[in-house]
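During the first year of the project, the team set up a workflow for recording each protein of interest as an amino acid sequence followed immediately by a discrete structure-token representation. This format lets reviewers and collaborators read both layers of information side by side without switching files. As required by the reporting guidelines, we include two representative entries from the current panel. The first entry is reproduced here exactly as it appears in our internal archive.
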Amino acid sequence: MDPRAARTRASLQDALLALARERSLDELTVGDIVQRAGVNRSSFYQHYGDKETLLADALEEALGEVAAPLRAAPRASAPPAMPPELMVYLEHVAQNATLYRRVLGDHGSAVVAGRLRARIESIVSDTVGLADPDVFADMPLDVVGAGIAGTALGVISAWVARDPLPPVEVAAQWLWQILVAPGLSWPAAR
């Protein structure tokens, strides 16, 4: 992608996330977003058809940034350790909890949730065999990806729906325990 186009897209994504922390997504206009991003309206429409597509790109980009190191290096084998990238991503979710609550809630965005699910499935496809290639040897990779993506989004949705929002460390423990070791004994999360 052209570096200028990449900068414009990043500015629009950052502007949308910043504004969504301040007020409801429904209240935001394209004018608000372009003003915060420092670009003109035609630049917005060169890159995005609507706010929902911009939001999907912004949330996908955040997930992609923290997943890059997961794809780069194999993990040590047992016992599985929680990847630090999980904490980084959940910090992002916590900072944008209101937005994730809305997007993943009962009346959320099917487009955005679907894109997040697809991105998680892609990350799983790229990384699932790095620690122990035999763990899912008898399962189709798309089934593994769908299971992990659904579980991860389910836990994240339940976490951000809580009021007050439990700490990131608690959510990470919940998610990691469900994903990796349902049969192990874990200290209770508060």
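The second entry, processed by the same pipeline in the following quarter, appears below.
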Amino acid sequence: METSAIDRVRASEFASETTYLNTSACGLLPRSAADAVKALVEDNATGRRQGAGDHATVVAARDAFARLVGVGPGRVAVGGSVASHVGLVAASLPPGAEVLAPTGEFSSVVSPFAVRGDLRTRYVPLDGLADAVRPGTALVAFSAVQSSDGRVAALDAIRAAAAAHGARTLLDASQSAGWLPLDAGAYDYTVTGGFKFLMCPRGTSFLTVTEEAQETLPVLFPGMAAAEDAWGSVYGPVERLAAEARRFDEPVSFLSYHGAERSLELLAEVGVDAVQAHATALAARFRAGLASIGHEAVPGASAIVAVPGLGGREPDLAAAGVVVSARAGNLRAAFHLYNTEADVDRALDVLAG
């Protein structure tokens, strides 16, 4: 019997000691990514390395992410958090601009707009987001997949509505990149935390910006990494910023990016389409199993399954070695390439008592 890429990767790269269904909170690190981080730690501890890490790993991670989401690397900025990327976008808006977002959207996606105090923020239910775009809406900010319950946004309809009213779009792909195919070029901005379905160490994040939108973003934290000639800009003010999205780079954690390079290579080897098919099949099995024991999950075809009102069972599952999350009263389980049907059945067995 032929072994699939997912089976090979699962066998060689993952050895979870639990039934791990919590990728929506934090993805498992592949062995090769963990080894890369450990190697850099040891180099830094023993003085074998000149400097804290290798800039080439940042370049490689940027390139790998760009390929994954279908844009050129010139559209990708790197950093350490989604909130800092969204903060750049928030800083670019004029006073009084309207930002439209779903009710209950993840804090990092909406807080940078809310705290400014001079923007008009408007919240509507996710399923009404496209219809709520109106003349005067400057930006629609939303997640492709909701953190609290795994619902997938009506991406095509929202993009079409924004285009019809001249609004820009900011998509958070933190709960989708890695299992749901993404065309980042279809949005003015995308932001992605790398430590979930991309399986990177925490402290890895990516911002994509169209060439047009790059002209409107401020450069808030330029260091040598944001310069066109980085090593020629070590001392004194940066004289010439990078011509592409790299001018929006944050100084990064090398430990995170040494691991991220390996994780993104691994994901490319398997392919997002294959991960989507695998993860959503497991999620469908879990939804069906939940129904058979009297629990109704949020409907859909997401790799993330939420069961309203069942969040209180999270401690019981944890005690049995099944790792999930409780979010907004929901029990939330997330399925990824390292999960199996046995993981699904184990969680159902615990829930069934």
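For the second entry, the following points were noted during internal review. The chain has two domains: 5-29+271-352, 55-269. The radius of gyration is 21 Å. Both points are flagged for discussion at the upcoming steering committee meeting.
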